[in-house]
Structures are given as structure tokens and as C-alpha cells.
Amino acid sequence: MDEPTASGPLPTSAIAEQIKARIHSGAYAPGQRLIEVDLAEEYAAGRGRIREVFKTLVGQGYLEFVANRGVYVRRFTRAEILEMGRVREVLEGLSARLAAETELSPDQRAALQAHQARLDAAVAAHDVDTYNRENFAYHATICTIAGNRHIEEFLHRVRLPLYRLQLPRNFSSDSMANSNRDHQVVTASILAGNPDAAEAAMRAHVRAGNAHVMRLAAHHFS
């Protein structure tokens, strides 16, 4: 359990960040109700502050208000996930293109190569959890290399960690090797400075994820 700081209760923004971290880690599951009074007690915060946190996280897409029932960790419909995937296809593709157009520093090259090596190792070990964490970090690094803050801001709202938690575990394990083959092409294209190939490979990668979502049973969605 997260504790208040030694100097007093956590700031409202820190409470929000901790709740987001719990959602990302799966400690709070999609569809789980968050109890205002319990969180107020845990964080030694007034219920008004917890309501402010809820309002912020609803605005950011992490939580949802359900009339006459309370606040829940957001679940996504299939249509919402597919819509986010279409937006991600364009933005992730552009991010890969811009990264490939960049004259990479030695540190940037090393970071991208290290990500790819860890992804390769996770596939070889059939380690889904490590692969998912590294996958997110890999995409974030490409976005950072691209250096376009607008892409980064928009992608933050439509990336996988939020809704992947509600999908079956074999969503990752079944597609991990194929997904990483796409990563290998993207990585090689960025390192070679080939923007067309980097964008095409990244867009194909995101489209494949959307196609997988289309094949899932209806009960996985709200």
C-alpha cells in the first residue's frame, strides 16, 4: 500500500499518479469500482480531494462515472479499441518516420538496439509480461527520438497499456513472435535511416494488432 509522505499527505497530483500506476500494473482491474471513502482513508485526504482525483482521471480516460453506481476503472468497447488503433496507426507510423529521418546520436542508437535485444530475449523466453513492458518502452523511445511533442501527447491517450489489461492473456502470447518481427523491421529501418520503410513497417504492426482485436470474442469488451 502506498503511504503518505513523512512530511504529510500526498499532493492530489501524486495520488492521481499512484492510482494510474495501479491501473497500468493491473492492481486495479478494468471494471473495478474505486471507493471514495477507502481512498480518502488510505491517503489521509479529504473526500473532496479524492473526488478531484477522480474527475482528473475521468478526463484522462482512466476512470468512468456510472450514474447512481460510482466510479470505475474504465473498460473499453471493441469499437473504442479499434478507433484508438486507427489513430495509433497514423501517429506511430509518423513517429517511426521522424525517428528514421533523425541523425541518431550514439546514445539513441544504443537505446533502440537495447530495446530490441530485450524484446528478442523476452520472445525467446516466452515472457509475456516482460515483453509487454518492453514493448511500451520501445514505442515510447521511438516517440522520444522523433522529437514531436504533439505526437507524444496524442499517443499518450491511445497507447495499449490501459485497454490491454482487459484482453485475454493469449492476446499477447499468441502474437508476441509476429509482433516482434515487425519491431525488428522497424528497428532496422530507423537505424538505417529509411523513413519510408520505418513508417510502413510500423503502420503494418499496428494494423495487425487491430486485426487481432477484431477476432476476439465479444465477452472481452464492455
UniProtKB/TrEMBL annotation:
PROSITE patterns: HTH_GNTR (PS50949). It comes from the Bacteria. InterPro entries: GntR_C, TF_FadR/GntR_C, Tscrpt_reg_HTH_GntR, WH-like_DNA-bd_sf, WH_DNA-bd_sf. Transmembrane segments: none annotated. The keyword Transcription applies. Residues 9-76 form the HTH gntR-type domain. Keywords: DNA-binding, Transcription, Transcription regulation. The keyword DNA-binding applies. It holds the Pfam family FCD. This is GntR family transcriptional regulator. It comes from Pelagibacterium flavum.
